[in-house]
From TrEMBL:
Keyword Kinase: no
InterPro entries per UniProt: HepT
Descriptive protein name: Nucleotidyltransferase
GO molecular function, a single term: transferase activity
Alphabetically ordered keywords of this record: Transferase
Amino acid sequence: MDIRWKQRFSNFKKAAKQLTEFIEKDSLNKFEVQGLIQCFEYTFELAWKTMKDYLEQEGFDVKSPRKTIQTAFQIQLISDGHAWIDALEKRNLMARTYDEERAMEAEELIRKNIIKLFRNFA
């Protein structure tokens, strides 16, 4: 039996807990915001790779994050496929550019929307 997805899921839950700790702080300095964004990025990475490992074990052929999310939504592993795709696009954008204004937008998005996705997935 393949337990890889279970191990990855365990790591995802730890990362999501760490992200929650960031969010529970009322205000973050610019370095903490960078840490929050990085924490989001690796938590998201663990989430989609957990989905991918699980789906592959179930016999699905998924290679990309987008295809993984679409398939996970189709089989009702996740409930809000559009929000997950949006999180994927935001992650890709955050990984490529960095400035303070964009960081503040990212922090707000993570606090208001993305953490809910992770909580529902956990």
